[in-house]
Amino acid sequence: MSRESVQAFFKTHAPDIEPVVLADSTATVAEAAQALGVQEGQIAKTLALKVGDERILVVMAGTERLDNRKTKDTFGNRPRMLPAEEVLELTSHPVGGVCPFGLPQPVRVFCDASLRSFNKVWPAAGDRNSSVCMTPDRLAELVGAKWVDVSQG
């Protein structure tokens, strides 16, 4: 179901983008970078967070980590990672395939400035072995994301 919702999203919003489905797992940044033949930073990982009472998604370069101080300053509260079952309920995507596309409900999405270090990034496409390639600005545009700077880098 998850990959199908992502494919439907792209068919409607960006028919020029076709998810790449690989035999190898792309569930971790390292696996995805190896399978796709790109730098680990080009893997656009999506973090599902709870900040205060709100659940949000933050997409950032694969090699980056959240900076708690920057995140608290940006969102007004300390971030907490959502447990896997809440991530699945919020996004319909399993951990390892979480992305901001084809979501079953409205969720605020933020793109971290770390993505702008790359011309092309590879976010997951709804499951543990599919991805899509696009520019960071196109990613933000497609999901209505706001740009933030919440990474340690």
Q: What is the CA–CA distance across the termini?
A: 35 Å
**Based on helices, strands and strand pairing, what is the structural class?**
alpha/beta
The level of helicity is 25-40%
Q: What does the average pLDDT come to?
A: 94
Number of helices: 5
As residue ranges, the low-confidence spans are: none
Strand proportion, as a percent range, falls in 15-25%
Radius of gyration: 14 Å
Strand count, sense and closure of the main sheet?
A: 6 strands, mixed
Helix-strand pattern? HEHEEHEHEEEHE
Query: How many individual β-strands?
Result: 8
Give an overview of the whole structure:
The protein has 153 residues and is of the alpha/beta class. 29% of the residues lie in helices and 22% in strands. The chain is built from five helices and eight strands; from the N terminus they run H-E-H-E-E-H-E-H-E-E-E-H-E. The strands form two sheets. Strands 2, 3, 4, 5, 6 and 8 form a six-stranded mixed sheet that branches. The protein has a two-stranded antiparallel ribbon with strand order 1-7. Strand 2 and strand 3 form a beta hairpin. The model has no long low-confidence stretch (mean pLDDT 94).
Can I get a quick summary?
With 153 residues, the protein is α/β, with parallel strands linked by helices.
